Amino acid sequence: MAERDTDDSELRREETIEIANEFGYVHVRKVHTRNGERLEIESPRRGALIRLDPLELEALTWQSDAVFTRMLEDPVDPD
Fold first, then answer.
1. 3-state secondary structure of 60
2. In sequence order, what DSSP letters do the residues of 30-44 get, joined into one string?
3. Which of 32, 54, 33, 51 is nearest to 42 (CA)?
């Protein structure tokens, strides 16, 4: 499942890609952890970071647009 507390000293990171528009801004990169490859997504504005494994990423493709619409209707509390 999503890694949130991995020791950063054990990571090997690849080049960062910045993706932005008027609604959002994230840094995305592939990282190599002791448990395998992950996609690291960081929101600099919120100070949030998540690392998703291949199965978690694949699960995103199983979702309908309605799932993401509902997620964005009720944004996460910044605290």
1. helix
2. EEEETTEEEEEEEET
3. 51
